[in-house]
Design a protein that fits this description.
The protein is built from 6 helices and 6 strands.
Length: about 170
């Protein structure tokens, strides 16, 4: 019985990754599944690790976020076994993506991170905005304090489109 349940969770993750044309973060997948109480966090992470080990999904860390994508092997597996996913679960997933696609896409397309540069005693921020996997903007800035670096990353998440428009307006 437990193995059947794990198989269902794997199929749910594969179905989610197959329904979008951009990677989802581990956090986005987890938020959906945990919010609906399909399973707990530890079991979900086991499922994701087993899918990675089986090469049905890939994982890529970008600026401290783990991005998950389905592989051709994962798509093929899903094609054969997606009838094991309850229609109601599929409907929930499809509805969730219809309602949240823009927000989800923006979360994986706009990245801001910072780290301490020991050699110079300052913080470097790294800000990226992507569209369909292509970097539109990729900015690195060195700032004197962690608080400033954190504020820059937070504001980048909120104001990236405005900043992009400003830069293109000034430079073109």
């Amino acid at each position: 019985m437990f193995q059947d349940t794990l198989t269902l969770y794997k199929l749910i993750v594969l179905y989610m990754l197959d329904r979008v044309n951009f990677p989802l973060t581990n956090a986005q997948v987890s938020d959906f599944i945990l919010e609906r109480e399909y399973t707990n966090y530890l079991t979900l992470q086991q499922v994701i690790n087993e899918l990675l080990d089986a090469r049905m999904i890939t994982s890529r860390t970008i600026l401290n976020r783990t991005h998950l994508s389905i592989t051709p092997e994962g798509r093929e597996t899903l094609l054969f076994f997606q009838n094991r996913i309850n229609h109601g679960i599929k409907k929930d997933i499809d509805s969730y993506f219809r309602e949240n696609e823009y927000v989800l896409r923006n979360e994986v397309s706009v990245l801001g991170d910072y780290y301490y540069r020991a050699g110079i005693g300052e913080y470097e921020t790294h800000l990226v905005a992507k569209d369909r996997g292509v970097n539109l903007v990729d900015i690195k800035m060195t700032v004197p304090t962690e608080e400033i670096a954190k504020n820059i990353c937070d504001n980048w998440q909120k104001k990236n489109q405005e900043i992009y428009r400003y830069l293109t307006g000034q430079l073109f």
